[in-house]
Design a protein that fits this description.
201 residues, 5 helices, GNAT_dom, GNAT family N-acetyltransferase, Acyl_CoA_acyltransferase
């Protein structure tokens, strides 16, 4: 006797755009926002802090790929030579972050970038992206074992905020690939399970 067919899981069509810079001269920095905004490198690779940033920034836009990682896996990702996390602070409070992923042949990916919802719309994002891209370009100055950066790239998708693509283009990133995928529909995780979008104003 055959088992009844399981209902298909709901899926959503997601467009993924990949963008790049191939010279530090491509970078068009944003003006610094007003107020006490500081960008500081997280000098101690700490999974607890990294996971806080990941869930606080990506919880309302369905960042889920790292939620199943163990503590050891998270530590391994942070400990790789050349991996860096730069955190924006507004009046001493974490406002967002940008994570640099070192790759082969002088390539650096901006792996994660974004702001905690309470800090969006305050002109911090352009400044943080500008600063982070500049740190991708001078990464080898802090990691002498790495070759000089030749290319900085990132991807964004239709799940990201409405101003994400415009911010990347304004900073001098150029589109080099577009693709569409079907992804499982998942609940919005929020900064912790079950919170969803409840913290958004």
């Amino acid at each position: 006797m055959s088992n009844p067919a399981r209902p298909a899981e709901p899926t959503a069509e997601v467009t993924i755009w990949s963008l790049e810079q191939t010279s530090p001269d491509d970078l068009r920095p944003s003006a610094a926002p007003e107020g006490d905004i500081r960008i500081v490198r997280s000098g101690i690779p700490l999974p607890e802090f990294s996971r806080f940033l990941y869930t606080a920034v990506g919880g309302d836009i369905r960042w889920t790929d790292r939620l199943t990682m163990t503590y050891a896996q998270w530590q391994e990702a942070l400990d790789r030579p050349g991996a860096e996390t730069w955190v924006a602070y507004a009046d001493g409070t974490p406002a967002g972050y940008i994570e640099l992923d070192p790759q082969d042949d002088g390539v650096v990916e901006i792996m994660y970038f974004g702001l905690i919802p309470a800090f969006r719309g305050r002109r911090i994002g352009g400044h943080l992206l500008s600063y982070g891209a500049a740190r991708a370009w001078d990464l080898a100055e802090r990691w002498p074992q790495r070759p000089a950066t030749k290319r900085v790239w990132l991807h964004t998708c239709s799940k990201d905020g409405p101003h994400a693509m415009d911010n990347y283009l304004r900073r001098g990133f150029r589109l080099f690939d577009t693709r569409t995928e079907l992804e499982p529909e998942v609940a919005t995780p929020g900064p912790w399970p079950g919170s969803g979008r409840e913290l958004l104003p």
